[in-house]
Amino acid sequence: MTPARRDALLWLAQRWSAAVLALCLAVHLAVIIYAVRGGLTAAEILGRTRGNAPLAVFYGLFVVAVSIHAPLGLRAILSEWTLWRGRSQAWAMAALAVLLFGLGLRAVWAVVQ
Amino acid sequence: MIGSPAYRARHHPAYWAFLVHRLSGLVLTLFLPLHFLVLGQALRGEAALDGLLRWTDNLPLKAAETLLVTTAAAHLAGGLRLLLLEGFAWRGPRKDLAALAAGVSLAVALLFALAVF
Amino acid sequence: MGVTAGESSAQEAMLDVRVWHGAEHGEFRHYQVPRRDSQTVLDVVTYIQRHLDPALSYRFACRVGMCGSCAMTVNGVARWTCRSHVDQVTADGRLEIAPLAHLPVVRDLVTDMRPFFDKWARAKGRFQGATTRSDPVARVPPDTPERRAVDAAIECIGCGVCYAACDVVGWRPEYLGPAALNRAWTLVNDVRDVSRLERLRAVAAEGGCLSCHSHTSCSERCPKKIAPTAGISGLKRACARAALGGEL
């Protein structure tokens, strides 16, 4: 793959993940505002989430989109505001993607199991 | 800083929209692993999660949560503006979208503050 | 040889002007310049060169906003100086005039524009037709979306104001910049041009249109009211489509 094609596809990935995140985050914010009224308890949260398959799919998608979106955004910030560029930066961003993906899916599993 | 040439060169709404978008994105990226770790506490049972939730039940942390929700709303609204700017043909400076994004994030912040306090 | 009221030096309103002297390293020098009606920033610089400091170097040609050679940093903002009136840029009579940012300074207010125009070449800013002068003139309908897109972007005078205003140019020295990409956008929409794909490859490569974050500083500052951000967004979409189609 040419570097130009790779960069254009990464740009698209950033924008498509942004579109997915926009939808997910809007729903998430609405849920948060609904849920925090009267305070949060673990029983209340887990009562809603345990065994809730649609919720697992929704937040699973959220996690996938954010693990694509955040490292790509951070890549631009690092390339422009710091001297860290190149191969080591690319590997670090890939590691961040894996970390977010792993921790995110673990969190989803923790509340729906 | 304010009044300096470097400040004047950038003093227009779309630049501030960019800065908010970048800084909010950075904050959210740093916050996410923590958020996931906290939710992961549910693996150790309801009591562990409850302990963390009680720890957040005070004024400074509720204020921090409100700031975080505002940050997320700002990144969302500003991001929608960018998707519109880049995704479709347009003319003119589109500062109206930046103002709309600011309005939406403020509204979300208020809603959250009303709910949490 | 009577002195007219307007020239009586005692009451004359004066401008406080600081002008850059030197190259990359240098200093601001201070001048007092008489305030005049309808005075442009270029008038101020010319006054200094003619009456106060003959060694001051600056560049201008047409004085009417066509040639694009007189752009400078005026009170922190990149502007064409020939059509920037003093009362548009200062309220308190203070002016700070510096060379354009993001370009090497040759001397005083003169920048080396080579990096700027080299990037036009890198962005394949040259028209490449398939016909010769003996072929009939191409007919381009004026109301097609492509022709309208060209119309909106074609009036660039190459003054470098957008390039100096762009943060990404400052952060990524290899970035092509708004003017070169705007030029590429007019050619991508030129139905007579035959090097579209080659051009998309050039502007999708590292330091091309995908580096733009839509700060819109270029569109904000362009003296010709072009919105390079709109054209750069069009290039991004064209590059993404070409990448999906496997053409890039």
CATH class of the largest domain in chain C: Mainly Alpha
Main beta sheet strand tally, sense and closure of chain B: none
Secondary-structure content class of chain B = mainly alpha
Which structural class do the helices and strands of chain C define? alpha+beta
> Using DSSP, what is the number of strands of chain C?
7
Strand content of chain C: 5-15%
Mean pLDDT of chain B: 86
> From N to C, what is the helix and strand string of chain C?
EEHEEHEEEHHHHHHHH
Overall domain count of chain B: 1
Sequence of strands across the biggest β-sheet of chain C: 2-1-5-3-4
Helix-strand string of chain B: HHHHH
The number of domains of chain C is 2
Number of helices of chain B: 5
Distance between the termini of chain B: 36 Å
The stretches of 5 or more residues of chain B where confidence is low (pLDDT under 50) are none
User: Gyration radius of chain C, to the nearest Å?
Assistant: 21 Å
CATH topology of chain B: 3 helical TM bundles of succinate and fumarate reductases
Which CATH-level-2 architecture of the largest domain in chain C? Answer: Orthogonal Bundle
Could you provide a short overview of the structure?
The N and C termini of chain A lie far apart (about 40 Å). Chain A has helices at about 5-35, 40-50, 55-80, 85-110.
Sequence-ordered SSE layout with sheet pairings:
The complex is a heterotrimer of chains A (113), B (117) and C (248).
Chain A: H1 3-35, H2 42-49, H3 53-81, H4 86-112
Helix pairs in contact in A: 1-3, 3-4
Chain B: H1 5-10, H2 13-40, H3 46-55, H4 59-87, H5 95-116
Helix pairs in contact in B: 2-4, 4-5
Chain C: E1 14-22, E2 26-34, H1 41-52, E3 71-74, E4 77-80, H2 86-89, E5 94-98, E6 105-107, E7 110-111, H3 114-122, H4 145-153, H5 161-165, H6 167-171, H7 178-188, H8 196-204, H9 217-221, H10 228-244
Parallel strand pairs in C: 1-5
Antiparallel strand pairs in C: 1-2, 3-4, 3-5, 6-7
Helix pairs in contact in C: 3-7, 4-7, 7-8, 7-10, 8-10
